[in-house]
Amino acid sequence: MESSSSEHTTQQPLLQPQLPNTNPETTSDLENTLSDDNLTLFRRMRKATWIESKILFRLATPTVIVYMINYLMSMSTQIFSGHLGNLELAAASLGNTGIQIFTYGLLLGMGSAVETLCGQAFGAQKYDMLGIYLQRSAVLLTITGILLTLIYVFSEPILLFLGESPEISSAAAVFVYGLIPQIFAYALNFPIQKFLQAQSIVVPSACISTATLAVHLLLTWVAVYKIGLGLLGASLVLSLSWWIVVIAQFVYIVRSDKCRSTWNGFSVQAFRGLPEFFKLSAASAVMLCLETWYFQILVLLAGLLENPELALDSLSICMTISGWVFMISVGFNAAASVRVGNELGAGHPKSAAFAVVIVTAYSFIISVAAAVTVMLLRHVISYGFTDGEAVAEAVSNLSPLLAASLILNGIQPVLSDVAVGCGWQAFVAYVNVGCYYVVGIPLGYLLGFYFKLGAKGIWSGMIGGTAMQTLILIWVTFRTDWKKEVDEARKRLDKWEDKKEPVLQ
């Protein structure tokens, strides 16, 4: 994490003739309240909390809906597959968590570069650059997607090479083939999503996702049970649903007045400066991939245990529930990144720091409530996925670890997205390498295989790595000099701002 050593100066962003979606509370009221020495500390904090809470929930609530519904599409596909049989559930779980999450993590991570640049550019009112960042990211992610297609095509030999069961690997490969179109939907969706979030435009995405979920459930039911397409049909419908979301969001951007200042059409600038843009995208990708692959490795290791079908079924159910609850944190994460990026771009260090505290507090409270709910329902939650009693008992035994993961997920992802808002991706990547791959995975392997604790041991060790990473992020965030981060944001925007080029006709 780099810090500027230059003296902090106040610089007002240039006014544009049209201010899209600018919230007065975001740009001035919170900073003024936090700087008002005429108020007592208690009154200042109370007023600031009220202002930030309104801003946060206006942004976070629709964002949570978007992420939860998008995740529910994958979750429902897994549930439909699970009711075909335990083999199909294990195959869909391995295909989703072992192959698909690799692509998801890589492309979402690369798309986070848009989150940093668009969030800070919007706060600084450099609106014309948002559309350029969107297009550059889409170009890079599409090129990456072409390369990732090879992993999907050769998924069966890859899974066999990793030591997975031949029967499960063969079925998982069939499921994965249907997810190939989803790769390119991801490549366009993530930049579009970050582009809209940076402007606090999230309600349209929530409406689009909600409508798409209804279509997805109907089409999956028809494909799996009425037409009898099985695993391949389930995954093809999932890919189609993601494309519906992408197309609908892009139509909104092109036709909406709210994006008039930030989307000026296709530009040749999208193909300029790609190597430098790739460096920031790569740092973002490494940071997020190290997190998503961490839990992917948990599932892959479980496939090497005795009775891998039971281990995969129970762990995949826990991971699915964790992922669903995690979407709440992800919604708050995205809000945190937007809030921090906007405030740094606008030159408001106190507001950026205060936004971190508030969003972390809310996300932690919600995650604790979710953990308590999981413990209360631990004996029955598996029956929504499969009817097996052995799986239900295994899930019940893993529930305390699931609850612990949920609590950690209420803090760690929020702080990771604060890092995205500040542009600290490279620093967090180093932290992730140490905590996850030097500590967590070796410890999980030791507990799971050497001490014969099975899935419980693997997961326990990996939770230790997550806990260590969370503590480091808390410490670093606590020690951050937010005035210097404002200077860094200004330097970053000055570096990435381009001269206007003609729009492609």
TrEMBL record:
**Key word Membrane present in the record?**
yes
For this protein, the record's InterPro entries field holds: MATE_euk, MATE_fam
For the region Disordered, give the residue spans.
Answer: 1-32
Recorded protein name is: Protein DETOXIFICATION
Q: Which family does it belong to?
A: Belongs to the multi antimicrobial extrusion (MATE) (TC 2.A.66.1) family.
Organism classification = Eukaryota, Viridiplantae, Streptophyta, Embryophyta, Tracheophyta
Membrane topology reported for the UniProt record: Multi-pass membrane protein
* Keywords, in A-Z order: Membrane, Transmembrane, Transmembrane helix, Transport
